[in-house]
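User: I'm writing a short report section on ligand binding and want a predicted complex to refer to. Could you take this sequence and LGRKZMXR and write out the structure as tokens? A short remark afterwards would be nice.
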Amino acid sequence: MVNSTSQALLPADQARNMAFDKILHKNSSNSQGGLRAMINKDNEAHKAAVVEYFQHWDEKKAEDETEAVRQSRVIDYASLTRQYYNLATDLYEYGWGEAFHFCRFAYGEAFKSAVNRHEHYLASSIGIKPGMRVLDVGCGVGGPAREIVKFTGCHVTGLNINNYQISRAKQYAVKEGLTHKLDFVQGDFMNLPFPDDSFDAVYVIEATVHAPSLESAYREIFRVLKPGGVFGVYEWFMTDAYNNDDLTHRQIRLDIEQGDGIAQMLKVEDGLAAIQAAGFTLETHYDLADDSNDTSVAPWYWPLGTDLRYAQSLSDVLTVLRMNRFGRVVSHAFISVLELLQIAPAGTGKTAESLAKAADALVEGGKKKLFTPMYLMVGRKPEF
Ligand SMILES: CC(C)=CCC[C@@H](C)[C@H]1CC[C@H]2C3=C(CC[C@]12C)[C@@]1(C)CC[C@H](O)C[C@@H]1CC3
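Assistant: Sure. The structure tokens for the complex follow:
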């Protein structure tokens, strides 16, 4: 698999990206988020973001996939990831909430509780204690960081490549009175903007799948972790059951990649090799989506599917109706009408369609056990 290294962006490029993101999102980061934020964008900048993101995927089918095409995505991972979240963040917040990750569902457990429990599980797996300095790599709009601060009493620094997500995360921290416990920094996890040995613990929730090289990303995490510090990650992987020569499998992987801003998704074995090559002592690793490790009564992908029988309350039904197949048909038709009336910016419908395709592929990949979004790896940086 590819093992490219990356270089830090020049200050001029960073300033240009920042200026672009400001024009694109106008003041929508101050709004309530979701659909309201989605309609408050600059049309021309949105069009440009759509072109920049979808140039990597348009007309690309599983049967035509070449190593060169995959490599071009890997080289462009930074802009691909940044533009993906420029386009998808408001839809995520509208449909899913403020924590951009999957979770397991126990008996009687409502959607929000299950999401929070998944975060608590990672925090306790890496032994986060009050007062620790912790790094959240790829923090989204800060939902998990806020929950982990409340759950453990630690301090969390959230890092994210996307300026819009960082401004939303900062705003939520102010709203919840948590600014003394939270910092949010814009940056690329391939070049972490922190000195060596800065953090007691580092966690990643479904983010380093965007990396051009998992080993290099983990090496950066190793560098900023104090000796003896612990790193825990919920990683997205294709499982051992995935066969790249099977076109159906490959199409599922490609649809997940295109609808989720992923340059190249790896297999479990690549991840296990990467974390150890980065220098970590691997303390534990297992797939939380694997039934034998699992206390779930519903599969992790159920909110995206068609099965409403797992809903625990009316509120769950209403939440899931924004995410699942039925809800997607209605909300995406509504979004396309908004775009036609020029209320939503150009390309909003295309983004929604691409997310819907990814959602179907995630469900399919989950059902066939070809894919997991929750492979847990815990590694320690040796003391000496
Ligand atoms: C992309 C990575 C690495 C992590 C994000 C995981 C999930 C939070 C997202 C993956 C697919 C997303 C979709 C939605 C919300 C966020 C995800 C579940 C929607 C339900 C948002 C509302 C849209 O109308 C449909 C989306 C389908 C995909």
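A remark for your report: Strands lie at 133-137, 155-160, 182-186, 199-205, 225-238, 281-287, 371-380. Residues 91-92, 94-96, 100-101, 206, 209, 236, 260-261, 323, 328, 331, 352, 355-356, 358-359 surround LGRKZMXR (CB under 6 Å).
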